[in-house]
Write a sequence for this structure.
């Protein structure tokens, strides 16, 4: 028996049902992100569209079927785009997206009911799908990550699917205002061949992207101090292992909050936590994006200033010190003044034997404490200058 249109739509319905359930379970129990919910909505509408296609003979009025099924398909792809935008942290739905869908659907109504035109009404939806998947591919390309294997997998699939849809749009447009059975048969044959594979590919690559994002987030959580948002020791070690030694001039700054134990004793651990968070906030306000701050433990932090000489680093530390004096923290309507000791040491291979360098800088921190705290000690070759 030949593989009929109805069989193809039932196959797509099963695929869409499975992917809808996978996305729903993922969103409910594994990765509760808005883009996962939107992609779940996309596959659920594809499911509805496929079911409508499989029972179109029973709907009676063909124009009604055509408008309903294509309205469902347009809405599905709108959710697909919204999901990709949400994943990038952008507003999922914009005015121009809604206006585009309204204009597209108005064109369908016009070419189906007002001035019937077989070629135009069959042309609009595959053309729209091609434009949408190309836009999704563009959004994936904009993903802010260095390595994007999951994204690239979907980009390739979307590019191929978009090309197929664009080709089918041109094929059906060529028939003009009246239906040409041979052209419609060719259009259906192409869709029957590629549609199931397209949705399987989109589903699998979506799952890969979600798994990749989840793994990245878990790595970040494992490498980040949950209280302050700074790197932890594991994060610093991991970062150092990823980078090759270089002759880059950098400066290592060791920071230790003064009288932190006293803050904890007098104001409780909430006061101590606020002090640590405020210190990291002040440091982040004074460093660049490629500089590194790590909480070594307790009230001790290390700051790595890339491409920074000792004199420049001293200016940065002075700014941090002055801001700490000016910005007291409040805990239970009581202001807590913050002070810290600093040891600054220039290094040439910032991620090579980093913990040996920290041990050396710790000697400078000990000197700063002995000098009365709230001091800055400069080190050169392990000795204060």
């Amino acid at each position: 028996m030949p593989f009929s249109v109805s069989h193809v739509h039932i196959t797509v319905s099963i695929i869409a049902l499975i992917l809808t359930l996978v996305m729903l379970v993922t969103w409910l129990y594994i990765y509760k992100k808005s883009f996962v919910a939107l992609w779940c909505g996309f596959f659920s509408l594809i499911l509805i569209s496929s079911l409508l296609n499989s029972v179109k003979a029973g709907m009676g009025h063909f124009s009604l079927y055509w408008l309903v099924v294509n309205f469902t398909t347009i809405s599905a792809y709108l959710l697909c785009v919204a999901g990709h935008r949400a994943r990038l942290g952008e507003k999922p739905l914009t005015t121009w997206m809604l206006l585009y869908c309204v204009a597209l659907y108005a064109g369908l109504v016009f070419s189906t009911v007002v001035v019937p035109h077989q070629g135009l009404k069959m042309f609009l939806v595959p053309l729209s799908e091609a434009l949408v998947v190309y836009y999704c591919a563009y959004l994936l390309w904009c993903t802010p990550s260095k390595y994007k294997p999951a994204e690239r997998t979907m980009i390739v699939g979307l590019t191929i699917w978009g090309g197929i849809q664009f080709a089918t749009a041109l094929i059906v447009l060529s028939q003009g205002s009246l239906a040409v059975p041979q052209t419609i048969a060719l259009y259906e044959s192409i869709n029957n061949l590629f549609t199931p594979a397209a949705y399987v590919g989109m589903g699998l690559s979506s799952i890969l992207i979600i798994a990749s994002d989840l793994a990245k987030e878990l790595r970040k959580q494992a490498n980040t101090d949950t209280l302050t948002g700074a790197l932890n020791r594991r994060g610093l070690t991991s970062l150092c292992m990823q980078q090759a030694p270089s002759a880059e001039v950098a400066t290592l700054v060791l920071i230790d909050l003064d009288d932190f134990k006293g803050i904890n004793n007098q104001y409780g651990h909430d006061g101590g936590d606020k002090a640590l968070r405020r210190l990291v906030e002040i440091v982040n306000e004074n460093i660049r994006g490629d500089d590194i701050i790590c909480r070594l433990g307790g009230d001790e932090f290390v700051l790595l200033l890339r491409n920074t000489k000792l004199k420049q680093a001293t200016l940065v530390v002075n700014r941090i010190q002055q801001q700490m004096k000016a910005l007291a923290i409040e805990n239970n309507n009581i202001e807590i003044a913050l002070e810290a000791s600093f040891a600054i040491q220039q290094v040439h291979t910032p991620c090579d034997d980093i913990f040996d360098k920290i041990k050396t800088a710790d000697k400078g921190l000990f000197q700063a404490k002995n000098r009365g705290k709230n001091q800055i000690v400069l080190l050169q070759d392990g000795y204060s200058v």
